[in-house]
Amino acid sequence: AVLDGLHVLHFPISGSVQMQAIYERHAEKHRKLAESLVFFARAHVKDECEMNGEEDAYESMSDEECVRIYKAYRATTGNSQVKGLVEEGVPMSAVDLCRNYALEHFDGTETQRRVYEEVWMPMERCALDAVGVGGSADDCMGVSDALEKAFVGVLSAELSAPVERAAIMTAYEQWWEARAVVG
Predict the structure, then answer these.
(1) How far apart are CA 181 and CA 28, in angstroms?
(2) What is the pLDDT along the chain (183 residues), one digit of tens a residue?
(3) CA-CA 20 to 30 A from 146: which of 5, 18, 40, 77?
(4) Could you give the residue ranges of the DSSP H alpha helices within 93-167?
(5) pLDDT for residue 58
(6) CA 124 to CA 144: how far, in whole Å?
(7) What is the DSSP letter of 180?
(8) What does the buried/exposed string (b/e) look like for 99-120 if buried means 16 or more CB atoms within 10 Å of the residue's CB?
């Protein structure tokens, strides 16, 4: 009864190139999560110091100290997530959210798999080609970074307004609702 309604969408991985891309994406997502945690921790601690009139104390704090204070604050407030970012498991990038948002608009696993294989995967390859992925993994920005760069450019042009990387998902939803044909 607990698993009623649970759907699993499986995308087979073939070859070491796809596996390497998965590892690269995972490492990049971990790096971004760590950067986000430091950003939010510093913002929180700075606000607290300013409210307490201790601006000088903030300036001398390390990133590690800010994160420790921020985590202690979140533990006491019961808020275990950083501004919607997942702390356990594999964190999702903006383009992961866009992909899932698009795929959820298609009925059935087979249709979702077909759209992923025929539309999303080629789009990933084109984004990697556009940023000049060479023969080695060292030349690779990573699929997420490449797609984010592409999404920023396309969404900015489509919406006739600049789109920042942090606002990709919001801009994508706006674009989707205005233009996408659900199938």
Answers:
(1) 32
(2) 456 666 666 656 666 666 677 777 777 888 888 888 889 889 889 988 888 888 888 888 999 999 999 888 887 776 655 544 545 555 678 888 888 888 888 888 889 889 998 998 888 888 877 766 543 333 334 777 888 888 899 999 999 999 888 888 888 988 888 876 654
(3) 40
(4) 94-103, 109-115, 121-130, 143-159
(5) 85
(6) 8
(7) P
(8) beebbeebeeeeebbebbeeeb
Transcribe 22-86 into DSSP letters.
HHHHHHHHHHHHHHHHHHHHHHHHHHHHHHTT-HHHHHT--HHHHHHHHHHHHHHHT--SBTTB-
Q: How far apart are CA 24 and CA 17, in angstroms?
A: 10
Per-residue burial over 39-57, b if 16 or more Cβ lie within 10 Å, else e, is ebbbebbeebbeeeeeeee
Using only C-alpha atoms, the chain has a radius of gyration, in whole angstroms, of 20
Residue 41, both tokens: 């921790």
Residues 6+ apart with CB under 8 A from 7: 109
C-alpha distance from residue 57 to each of 35, 53, 64, 76, 176 (Å):
22, 9, 14, 22, 46
Whole-number pLDDT of residue 65: 93
Which pair of structure tokens corresponds to residue 17?
Answer: 């190139």
